[in-house]
Write a structure and sequence with these properties.
By secondary structure, this protein is mainly α. The chain is built from 16 helices and no strands.
Length: 370
Amino acid sequence: MAARRFRVPYSVGLVLAGIALSLWHQFPDVVLSRELIFTVLLPPLIFEAALYIDWRELRRDFAVILALATAGVLLSATVTGLGLYYIAGWEWPSALLFSVLIAATDPVSVIATFKEAKKKGRLRFLIEAESLFNDGTAAVAFTVGVALVLGQNITPLEAGRVLIAAVAGGILCGAAVALTALLLVGRTDDHLVEITLTTVGAYGSFLLAENFGFSGVLATLTAGLIMGNVGTRALSEKGIVAVESFWEYAAFVANSLVFLLLGISSSKENFFHVWRAALAAILLVLAGRAAAIYLTLLPFSRSSASVSARHQHVLFWGGLRGALALALALGLPPTVPRRDEIITISFAVVAFSVFVQGLTVIPLLGRLGD
């Protein structure tokens, strides 16, 4: 409420509130962990966003979204990793892992920011869809990177097989859980049961995929897409209203907790002793994002799927980092070189995204967007 009164993005307000709470010594010590982000907070955010992705819009821009979620992520990671190795003097293992975990834009930050801007249209669809799809690429690439750093002998062919299995397995798990839930939904008109079955779809798909080593993010994304586009025909009239209201509130609560915990955890990091590396990382991440947008979208410039230069500028600056990067960083094995430094710098990059990009992207969207 205070953030709206002072016309500050509520994500920024919640991070500031978290910092303030951490300074209050009576406040309980809350730890932002990978498990909390991945298994509790991420599924409802991804599921709720996917519920409102229209098949027709997705088909129209699928080639652009796929290019950004694959080639874009790899380009971003390559630029950041090479910069850390040659400019900052990092070892290859540390540069590789940091560049991969920070490469993908974060759906939590992106969706919260663009919802608050109250802008609709192709630009918002592209940046939100990209943030949902590129998570899967980054998470799988990160798994392969950790295996390489820990000395496992993985050939390019094996890495490709792991990537394909994680993507395909995640999609199959999401589809299986969603279709099973929809079959059950069609047998009831109790709106509470309908809400419960969509909750099973969100969390069940994620946990099932992760249990088999597949992409839980893509599983929940697939479940949300199916239930959002097909579920309206299976839900009762009362159920449609109840489900939409429930997930709007669930996403709001999860969003709020993510940013609040981000503020609490960030205040405990010592940024001073890594400020040079943090500054270099922020600049390199921005350079990587620029390569991901401008180079990846260049081949589409003469086609019907072309993205205007103005929209590309918003896509570049609106590529916020957040909870996903922190979840991957916090999940690094203890033996990884520079692990503590990677975590601290990840917090620094996320803080830059929230406070600098988060505060300026909405005015930029107003000037350059639809």
